[in-house]
Every structure is written in C-alpha cells, then in structure tokens.
C-alpha cells in the first residue's frame, strides 16, 4: 500500500521559521520519521514538497494511479488553493489534512480551509506528531477497508 505525504509552500524552511509555532524538526527529519513509521505499518510512504501549487497538482495527478491515500499539509494553500483542492477531489483518494500549528488559535484567516470539506479529517496543532497520527489513521482505515 502506498500513501503520499505532501507538504505545501514554505514547509521546506521549517528550520528557519518560528520554532514556537512550527517546532524544532526539519522537513527531512519529519519525512524520515514518516518513512520509518510507514515501514512499521507495512506502508510505502512517498513524500513531496513544493512551493508551487502547479507542482503539487502535477505530483498528485502523476501519483494517483498507484496510490491509496494522501496526507497533506497545504501550508498557505489551505486558505485559497482551489486548484489544489480540485486535484485532490479528482484523485478520489481519502485525504487527511495536517497542520503543525493549531490554525484555530492563530490569525482569523488561518481558520478557513478549502481542503477540510473534502478531507476525511484534519489534525491541527500537534506539530510533527500530527503527521504520524494522520499516517497511522489513514493506513489503519485503508487496511480495514481492504479486509473481507
């Protein structure tokens, strides 16, 4: 089973951003933890990051045929990435939206997500552990759905 973990704009800069908001781990560290967790779950985890909405869409469209689910932190595209939303809908895959910070405790505009209405769930405010929780939940659900 294959699950995509997609990181949107600015997540490549975690080591340079406000650690009180985004945590201490770098994106490569988070990706490494996710791949290890994937091995423990017997799931292939494919990670991808881009600062460009079109590149995220291209990746989703290219990878969808061989993928069972998506964990995504859309970054700022959470609030206005309608073409990203459309690509996620078109994938027809289960999606879990993740945010490192609690988007509901920050600026008011951050609380609006165009992705949440199409996602199975959203994890916000647990830092890097939110990614792991999303991967575990999605893998568990996909395995349960595949059981006779």
Describe this structure in words.
There is one protein chain. This protein is an alpha/beta fold. The chain has a single domain (2-143), classed as Dehydroquinase, class II (Rossmann fold, 3-Layer(aba) Sandwich), CATH 3.40.50.9100. 40% of the residues lie in helices and 18% in strands. It has five helices and five strands; from the N terminus they run E-H-H-E-H-E-H-E-E-H. It has helices at residues 19-22, 27-41, 53-63, 82-91, 128-146, and strands at residues 2-7, 44-49, 69-73, 95-99, 121-124. It has a five-stranded parallel beta sheet, sandwiched between helices. Helix 2 packs parallel to helix 5 and helix 3 (53-63) runs parallel beside helix 4 (82-91). The radius of gyration is 14 Å and the shape is globular.
The tally of structural domains comes to 1
What is the mean pLDDT?
94
Radius of gyration: 14 Å
Task: Name the overall outline.
Answer: globular
Main beta-sheet annotation: 5 strands, parallel
What's the total number of strands?
Answer: 5
CATH topology: Rossmann fold
Instruction: Indicate the structural class.
Output: alpha/beta
Going by CATH, the homologous superfamily would be: Dehydroquinase, class II
In angstroms, what separates the terminal alpha carbons? 16 Å
Oligomer: single chain
Question: H/E order of the elements?
Answer: EHHEHEHEEH
Our count of helices gives: 5
Q: What is the level 1 CATH name?
A: Alpha Beta
Low-confidence stretches: none
Major β-sheet strand ordering = 2-1-3-4-5
Q: What fraction of the residues are assigned to beta strands by DSSP?
A: 15-25%
Helical content (DSSP H or I, runs of 4+): 25-40%
CATH architecture name: 3-Layer(aba) Sandwich
């Amino acid at each position: 089973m294959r699950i995509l973990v997609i990181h949107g704009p600015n997540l490549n800069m975690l080591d340079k951003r406000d650690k009180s908001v985004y945590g201490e781990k770098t994106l490569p560290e988070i990706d490494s933890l996710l791949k290890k967790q994937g091995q423990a779950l017997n799931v292939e985890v494919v990670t991808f990051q881009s600062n460009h909405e079109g590149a995220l869409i291209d990746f989703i469209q290219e990878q969808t045929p061989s993928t069972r689910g998506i964990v995504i932190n859309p970054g700022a595209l959470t609030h206005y990435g309608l073409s990203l939303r459309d690509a996620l809908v078109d994938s027809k895959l289960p999606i879990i939206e993740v945010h490192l910070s609690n988007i509901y405790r920050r600026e008011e505009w951050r609380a609006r997500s165009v992705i949440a209405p199409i996602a199975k769930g959203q994890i916000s405010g647990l830092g890097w552990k939110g990614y792991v929780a999303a991967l575990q939940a999605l893998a568990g659900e996909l395995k349960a759905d595949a059981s006779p």
